[in-house]
Amino acid sequence: MTSAQPPSQPDRPPRPNLVFRQLRGRRSPAEFAAAVRRAAREIGERVSCDARYVGRVETGEIRCPNYAYERVFLHMFPGRTLTDLGFAPRSSVRGRRARTGPTAAVPAASAEPLAPDGGTPGAARPYDRGNPYTHDDHEESDVLRRAFMRGGTATAAASLGPLGLALDAAAAERPVRRCGASDAGALEEAVRRIRLLDDRHGADGLYRRAAAPLRAAYALLDAGAMRRATADRLYAGAGELALSVGWLAHDSGRFDDARSHYAEALATARMTGDPALEAHAFCNTAFLARDAGRPREAVRAAQAAQRAARELGSARLLSLLALREAGGWAGLADRVGCERALARARALFDRGPAGADPDWMSFYGEAELAGLEAQCWSALGDWPRAARHARRAVELQDPHFTRNIALYTAELADDLARGGRPDAAAAAGLRVLDLLGKVQSTRVQTILAGTARVLLPHRGARGVSAFLDRHAAHQAALSRPA
């Protein structure tokens, strides 16, 4: 956890490059990066493209590629311009963080990528556009710090209202002091509030607002606590808050930010000897690794999570962690390893709930079990089986979890489309579009964009044209400036 002073505020948040994501198709980020390197060799260019670079492009962190990448991308997609590929015009990014040399006008975010997993997880990082902590608003940070120190659940809940960040002005005038139980309670309430809002609305609209409470949590840790028990609660709360904010980054496609938050939570867990927090951090890391195209890392992180959780007394937690491992095996196309992990997950789930089940696992029931199993079969290319499990996930989901209903329905639409049932896929896709008025999730939008691409050749099938037209209108609305 860093206490470095942040640099100046970026002029706008990154906008995901959904066009580029569609062009990648079903290839993993690592597979697509390999294709980019091959294309570069074909025209005599040298680029060090990897899955991390692809992720930075898709999340919008790289608004315009450098000249070498530009030549490679235009070679890969002949007849298209940079803007056709979802990038901003080069003229719109000139002058930002210029470097010396012939490409001085290119922003640093467009430079050659770092090596995969480069740097120290959780260490202070240089300013980048996707990082919500890098803005020069020290006064706001101090106000938030005092708001948390004032304590009480109302302050924490108000700090994450769906339409903006609200603070009690009187809290800003209270003096800094050592923390007590009320401060730990305010922090724990902020975690609950974020999770509740994510369940209902998705991550995209919440991520940047959640950064402020996380900064305030770090300030509480710096201030110290009067009692050891309170300090333990503060560290656990800060770790869980880092995981919640990391999940918001993860679900909105900001994989590098998510990785950093998860690493901070893991460092906190290791520092304080908290196996429950460590298991949660490795659980999220496994999920992120799977989504980022690093399935072997997903398997290892899930196995590390299971070792940490072994003595916690929660069969449901071990069940979820087995599912995380299954997702990694599926990404490696290891059907046997995946099926074994799935069988273990089901057997552990059937043991039922226990008092030791973590609060953050409230989302994990029959619906989530079915949804995660559907994702495994989808990764293995067994579309009919994936569709059966995705449909079951939709049918079983508690209406409170609007975001998950949208996710499972989008996965169902995609599985049906790839399984040769375009009419049923279009009907499910239309239901997702109905939900996107309430849910903001890059993950859901990305899945739906892939489904639309698969359905394009089937425009004559019943309902497909209506879905494609509505989806195109939705995409156009997303691309308009805010």
Please sum up the structure shown.
The protein is mainly alpha-helical.
Q: How many beta-strand segments?
A: 0
Point out poorly predicted stretches: 1-11, 94-176
Q: How much of the sequence is in beta strands?
A: under 5%
Gross geometry: globular
**What oligomerization state is this entry in?**
single chain
Q: Structural class of the secondary structure composition?
A: mainly alpha
> What's the average pLDDT?
76
Helical content stands at 55-70%
Secondary-structure element pattern, one letter each: HHHHHHHHHHHHHHHHHHHHH
- Give the CA-CA distance, first to last residue: 33 Å
Largest beta-sheet characterization: none
Helix count, per DSSP? 21
Provide the gyration radius in Å. Answer: 22 Å
